[in-house]
Fold this protein.
Amino acid sequence: MSAQTARPRVLVVMGIEHIVETYAESLQDEYDVDTATSVAEALGVIDDDHDVVVIDRQLSREADVVVVDELQKRGVDCRIVLVLDEEPSESVLELGCTDYLVTPVDGQELTETVRRVLRIGEYVDRRRELGSKKLTRNVMEVEHSEHELADDESYRELNAEIERLEAVVDEIEAELGLEDIDRFL
């Protein structure tokens, strides 16, 4: 989420001004929304504070690839929702997108997709954090005896944090019904 606000920040990139405005209006109740009507404009606007980019592939066949590549070069970690005019022939996930929508897209569908994509992002972040904490715990267990660890407050706190993260991860998995979750990791 953006550093200045508790609301997630979304960039909507569409080639048609009234569609950009319609999508922005649909999202503005829940999110801080920026807009662009071209890839060049989007690349000038996007920064680390954006949590989701919604991009219209109709801008150009490579619009999504250009944006994804530039985000990776800049080290920007955000989720991408691709808007297509038909079902994709290739996996949009392989392009670096988190999800896609097929036009026509109404405001509710867009809002729900952005909400889901943000939740997937939270899931990925918590899984990474959980993995890091488990690795730290494993190192502690190798370096210290069971007796030493039994009295170690930081070890007990680490285990409590691992349990908390496992519960969060399980909750998000159940909420989203993520069968093939490894594709997001």
User: Anything to note?
Assistant: Residues 29 and 153 are 44 Å apart (CA to CA). Residues 107-143 form the longest helix (37 residues). The chain has a mean pLDDT of 85. DSSP finds six helices and five strands in the chain.
